[in-house]
Amino acid sequence: MRTIFYISDGTALTAEAFGRAMLSMFPSQVEHKTLAFIDSITKAEQAAKKINAAYEESGERPVIFHTFVSQDLKNVITATKGADFDFLDYFIEPLSAELNMEAKPITHRTHSIQENGVRDSYDSRIEAVNYSLANDDGSNISDYDQADIILLGVSRTGKTPTSLYLALHYGIKAANYPLTEDDDMENLQLPKPLKLHRHKIFGLTLEAQRLHEIRSKRRDGSRYASMQQCRFELQEVEKMYRREAIPFLDSTRFSVEEIAAKILAETNLERHHY
Amino acid sequence: MRTIFYISDGTALTAEAFGRAMLSMFPSQVEHKTLAFIDSITKAEQAAKKINAAYEESGERPVIFHTFVSQDLKNVITATKGADFDFLDYFIEPLSAELNMEAKPITHRTHSIQENGVRDSYDSRIEAVNYSLANDDGSNISDYDQADIILLGVSRTGKTPTSLYLALHYGIKAANYPLTEDDDMENLQLPKPLKLHRHKIFGLTLEAQRLHEIRSKRRDGSRYASMQQCRFELQEVEKMYRREAIPFLDSTRFSVEEIAAKILAETNLERHHY
Which residues of A touch B36 (CB under 8 A)? Predict the structure, then answer.
């Protein structure tokens, strides 16, 4: 099997994103290897050995996605037997012309703590994570004044991972509130603590079959996990979303990245991080 | 100020990563705008209007980073007055030649739930998030058998955001365990529940000044936040890391992405997600 290398003198997150986007265009089965913080000639030479070894083992030329700032380190990698792709190199000149500005590459700037030169932006992202944790699962409803968004849904519809992703990735203070059997599902109303914050609420829902599968992993054979109960809860909660004009999303076919991006696209919430 | 647009018929996460990496090479002040899920001609035309309006308002040509799969939608965007950069387009031919395979672009594959065609990989990532939440802050020590890694450190050294990032981004089950004053700092030993799992432990530490600032935001003027206490705790915990041969990292100058990538680079933990 062909090996794909993601290599950088920084985190290699950009090389991974670049390579992953490229590979998604091809229906190929490959093995992935990330070599991050390759920030000395010695480390670059070790990386080069790994690349050449992968070629010898599989007989297929490794593919290398890299984003080096240091030209000397890059030269060690491009001298290997792998096929290397360097998107920074290709686009830097046209972008420099467009911005009318010389490039001043600094290692480790993309994912550093000084986002756009501002430490505050990073701190506010960590603050959002702490907020979302403290406001997970309906705790701390007194803090909803500070929420950027409040995710609503029945148990196991993806509220928690979505809140954490919104906080970690975008610096958004995302609370989440669960609808439970105590909420009188047969006559479901918007819970009182949420009424004042209606404009911040976003609903999540799922297909009944998927919810049944997820809940069955938790409590197999329970009423809670039964197809009938899942179908009933989802039907009632969607009715309420419509009645209360709460925007909502069926997350069955979406990853947490997609759910978060869709919520941002629908709500025009401001990203605190790029 | 110049506006940078990140546009895609999917999440636009790749366009953001691509553009952000390119812009990090230039010391420029810009405004960022993401237009995600531009998946119809109507939406593409609305996006085109926004791009042209940004040009008219600022007098500076907007820069567009885009990753469209649909050629028709892309044409609407490239016909605007913005300067557009399309890295997929440029690299697709050489990669196709290298892989000896035709590209079969499918919208929304990069960040979809079918990571590399495998739903299980996505589910295990969500499972890792649930694990890390349940094992935050020393709770649930009975589950440490399942941990991929256990982060250790005194209060407020970044254990929680790092665990969550490892889980969300890489599908790694990351528990975290806090060292507190109850642990008898003057004679600090590796806590008993951790002794069996010593090989999974990774320590976090900070500079005393930074820890003092962070703790002061929580409890200003307390003994807990005092420079003296912060210095003492960090000194004792670092002594213990060295004595017990626990790998550790001073996270003062690093973002959560960098900390996570450094931990992976040092421990050779397997990523469950690319």
Answer: 261-262, 264-265
Spatial distance between the Cα atoms of A33 and A7, rounded to a whole number of angstroms: 9
Residues 6+ apart with CB under 8 A from B11: A257, A258, A261, A262, B36, B37, B108, B110, B111
Q: Closest partner residue to B261 among A11, A28, A258, by Cβ? A: A11
Q: Is B261 on the interface with A (CB under 8 A)?
A: yes
Distance between CA atoms of residues A173 and A129, nearest Å: 7
Q: Are B260 and B204 in contact (CB under 8 A)?
A: no
Domains of chain A are 2-99 (3.40.50), 119-267 (3.40.50.300)
By the 10 Å C-beta count (0-12 exposed, 13-18 middle, 19+ buried), B224 is classed as middle
Q: What is the residue whose two structure tokens read 């969607």? A: A238
Q: What tens-digit pLDDT sequence spans chain A (274 residues)?
A: 899 999 999 999 999 999 988 998 888 889 999 999 999 999 999 999 999 999 999 999 999 999 998 999 999 999 999 999 998 888 999 999 999 988 887 765 667 766 545 566 788 899 999 999 999 988 877 789 999 999 999 999 999 999 999 999 999 999 999 998 777 788 899 998 899 999 999 999 999 999 999 999 999 999 999 999 999 999 999 999 999 999 999 999 999 999 999 999 999 888 877 6
**Helix H or strand E segment including A240:** helix A227-243
Pairing assessment for the beta strands A63-66 and A2-7 based on DSSP bridges? parallel
Helices A119-134 and B159-170: crossing angle, nearest 10°? 80
Among A152, A121, A118, smallest CA distance to A135 is for: A152
* Gap between the Cα atoms of B181 and A207, Å rounded: 48
**Of the candidates A262, B10, B31, A123, which has an alpha carbon nearest to the alpha carbon of residue B19?**
B31
* SS3 of residue A98 by DSSP: helix
The amino acid sitting at A8 is: S
Contact A262 B91 (CB under 8 A): no
Angle at A203 between CA A137 and CA B117, to 5 degrees: 90
Residues of B in contact with A262 (CB under 8 A): 11, 36-37
* ipTM confidence: 0.89
Look at B264 and A109 and tell me if their CB atoms are within 8 Å. no
Contacts of A129 in chain B (CB under 8 A): 160-161, 164
B110 is in an annotated binding site: no
